[in-house]
Amino acid sequence: MNTLEALILKKTLYKEADYIVTFFTKELGKISGLARNAKNSKKRFGGRLELFNHLKVDIKQNDNKFNTINDVQIKRSYIGIMENLEAFMIASFVMEHVDFFSSENEQSEELFSETLKTLHEMESGEALLPKLHTFQLNSLKISGYEPDLESRDETTANFSISDGKIVDSLPKTDNNVYKFHLDIVRNPETMDIFLGKVANNIRVLTKYIEYHTEKQFKTAKFLEEINI
Questions:
Q1: pTM for this one?
Q2: Cα 134 → chain centroid
C-alpha cells in the first residue's frame, strides 16, 4: 500500500455508489483508483473526495484490476476557491492543464509544487488571470512544452502556435499565428494593470497547448466570458 500526497483531477460514478477517482500525486504522478461505496460512506470518504482538496491518500495498487482507495485524509481544503465562481472556473482550468501534462506513474514533483502554489494564491480570489498566465508559462516549461518567446524589444509580436515560437512576420496563409504581448511576460508585475493583454496571452497559450497535446480543454469556455 502506498500513502500519497494528492490532488483530484476527476471523479466518475461507477455502478451505484462507487467512484473511480483520478489523482495527481507528488510521488507517482497520475494514478486512478476505486473508492468503494464512497457515495454513501461518510466515515471513510465523506466530503473529502472533492476538487481542490490537498489530500493524503492510502491506495493499494493491484495488478490487472482497479487500484483500491482505502483511506483519504485532508491536508488542506481550498474553501476560498469553492466559494468564488470565477476562482472555481479558473482553478478547474488549471487542473485540466495538470491532467494534460501529467502521465500515469510518472513523478513530477515540480509540477505538483507549482500546482499547489497556484491554488494557494488563487484562494484569495484576487488577480486570478495573472496567476493563470504565470501557471501556464511555468507548467509549460516544467512539462517540456516551453514556447520560444525570444524576441528583440517588441512589446507585441507574432507567435506561431504550430512552430511554438515568435516569428518575424505574419504569413498570409498561416492561421496559426497570433498576436502575443511580450511586455507583460518580461514585466509580470504589470499584469494586474494590463488584464486585456493577459487574457489575450492566455487564449493564445491555450490554443498552443491544444495544438501540441492534441487535446481539447473542456473548461476553457470561461475564456469566452472574459470581456476585458
A1: 0.91
A2: 12
Distance CA 182, CA 200 (A): 11
CB 53 within 8 A of CB 8: yes
For the chain, give every domain's residue range: 2-77, 80-225
Strands laid side by side in the 165-167 sheet: 165-167, 156-160, 177-181
Residue type, 74: I
The CATH number given to 2-77 is: 2.40.50.140
- Pairing of the two strands 68-77 and 156-160: unpaired
Q: 93-105: per-residue pLDDT in tens? A: 999 999 999 988 8
Pairing of strands 2-14, 53-60: antiparallel
Q: Give the phi and the psi of residue 147 in degrees, each rounded to 5.
A: -75, 155
Class of the 80-225 domain? mainly alpha
Q: What is the pLDDT of residues 68-124, one digit of tens each?
A: 999 899 999 999 999 999 999 999 999 999 999 998 888 889 999 999 999 999 999
